[in-house]
Design goal:
Aminopeptidase; nine-stranded mixed beta sheet; globular
Length: 213
C-alpha cells in the first residue's frame, strides 16, 4: 500500500523478532481474525471495556471497525496509533500508543492484546518496548503511563520489566462490578535505564508532524 495520503501507513517499527505497522485492509482482516479466535480465557476479563464478551464473529467485526476509526478520527491533539504486531510474518496481536495534547504534555499511554496462541513467549514485552522507543527516542516523550487490573499479573509483569513504577490505584466498573486498577508511570530517565530491546524505526519523517512532536 502506497502511503501517499496517509503517511502513517509507511511507519515501521522493528525489534529482533517483531514488526509493528499500521495495518492495511489485508492485515486488518488478519488482525480481526486473531481477535475473533480469542485473546483471553472466557472466564477472565482483563479489559475495562469488555469488548470480548460478544461472539467471535462480532468480536472480529468490532476490531476491524475500531481500527479504521483510529485513522478516521486522528488529530494532532488526540491520536491513537493502533499497530498490528507481526511475528515471523504473521499477525499475532495489536499494540496501541495514544496521546492527548502531546505537544503540551509530552505524555503517552499504551495498551495491547495478543492472541491466545501467541502468549507466554515474551512478545508482549517486546512489542511494548517498540512503541516506548518510538515515544521516547523518536517523538521526545517525557512520560509514559499504563494501567492494569491488580489481578492481571502478566500485564503488570510487562510493565515492571520495562521500568514502570506504581502510580496509585483507581476503581472502574466492569460487567457491573468494581475492579481495582494499578496505575503505572515511567519517565524518560527510567526508560533509558531499563531499555534493553533493540528497535529501529522507518518512515517516521513523513508523518512526524501528525503526532504533534
Amino acid at each position: 500500500m502506497k502511503p501517499q495520503h496517509w503517511p502513517l501507513y509507511g511507519l515501521r517499527l522493528r525489534t529482533p523478532r517483531l514488526e509493528l505497522r499500521l495495518p492495511d485492509l489485508e492485515l486488518l482482516n488478519d488482525l480481526a481474525s486473531v481477535a475473533a479466535d480469542g485473546v483471553h480465557p472466557p472466564d477472565e476479563m482483563p479489559f475495562t471495556i469488555p469488548w470480548t464478551d460478544v461472539p467471535p464473529e462480532e468480536r472480529g467485526r468490532a476490531t476491524f471497525r475500531h481500527m479504521l476509526s483510529t485513522v478516521a478520527d486522528w488529530s494532532v491533539q488526540d491520536w491513537a496509533l493502533g499497530l498490528a504486531v507481526l511475528y515471523e510474518g504473521r499477525v499475532v496481536g495489536r499494540q496501541d500508543l495514544t496521546a492527548r495534547d502531546f505537544a503540551v504534555t509530552g505524555q503517552v499511554s499504551t495498551g495491547s492484546w495478543l492472541g491466545l496462541a501467541h502468549q507466554g513467549r515474551g512478545i508482549g514485552t517486546e512489542m511494548r518496548a517498540a512503541v516506548l522507543h518510538l515515544a521516547f527516542a523518536e517523538l521526545g516523550a517525557r512520560t509514559a503511563v499504563s494501567s492494569a487490573m491488580t489481578d492481571n499479573p502478566r500485564s503488570l509483569g510487562v510493565s515492571h520489566r520495562l521500568g514502570y513504577l506504581p502510580d496509585g490505584t483507581t476503581v472502574a466498573a466492569v460487567r457491573g462490578a468494581p475492579v481495582t486498577l494499578q496505575r503505572l508511570r515511567m519517565d524518560r530517565a527510567r526508560w533509558e535505564e531499563y531499555r534493553s530491546v533493540e528497535v529501529t524505526v522507518e518512515g517516521l519523517d513523513g508523518c512526524r508532524a501528525e503526532f504533534g512532536a
